[in-house]
Amino acid sequence: MEKGFYIGVLAALFAAFAFSLNFVVPFIIGGYSTFDFALVRHVASALVGLCILFSNKGAVQYLTLRNVLSAIWLSFIGYVGYFLTVTGAAIFAGPVIAPAFLGLVPIALMVIGNQRQASLPWRFLLMPLMLVLVGLMLVNGTVFTAEGLDSVRSVWIGVPLALAAVALWVWFAISNQAALAARPDMPSGVWSALILVGGGVLMLAFYPAGAAMGLFQLPKLGFGWHAAGSLYVWGASFALLATVCGVWAWNIASRNLPVALAAQLIVSETAFGVIGGLAVHARWPSAVETAGVAILIAGVVLSVRIFYETQFRPGNPVLASE
Questions:
Q1: Is Membrane among this UniProt entry's keywords (predicted)?
Q2: What CA–CA distances, in Å, run from 173 to 56, 212, 280?
């Protein structure tokens, strides 16, 4: 049990790192749109998922209609639907406000997850929750300044889309854990593969409508390797690391950790994202950004400590003094 706890923590942190790579996507795709990138990424992920399913001799027994439909539904909630709402939020609310609202995800997950599972008394969650809130406020401190609002097209459209993205990801995280709990014998790799295949199928299904709306640049710029080679390379690379490995790691974390703790650990995605963004822009963090990241990390560390002490050392006097 204790070993599973450590595995879950490491898996959640790796998933947060993998998901944080999404923050650098706009800087590497050139003239192609985020929809082009998402198409390549999810199709490549689906191919990896198919390889996992066909290479696993015991996977056939899990390919029931119920499992396939559940995986496709979760893919729609957590990948296609989430992607569309996040992209729409970024288009209408700008690249600063949208990520700031997504910082609400771990807060909502922690509250809802602990309400459903009663993992910890609320008094133990209060301090890490406050640290996370303060850290997020500092990291996103420039959101509503004049500079941060420069690229806003419509707050009335962008903010509801950002909130919808928050709701979809919270829904996905809770539903995915419930689906895994209902399938204790199914390997995490097989379930991850089903979700990956579902995401690729849904993106391919969306392509005709998206192309008709002019969301994809591939028809204009070309599908050939000479024109789109870098898109394919980056898309495949992110598919392997950010999608395949990220989904696999998140499913492992979901099996081994309560939702409230997994939510706290996913906060580190913001810290990883800030570091990645600073690296892309080749600048050092400001004092406020440094303080925000440090406080976020402190909140994550405190959460891990409290959950560990509660589960494995319930009589520890340190915990009693919290």
A1: yes
A2: 26, 32, 29
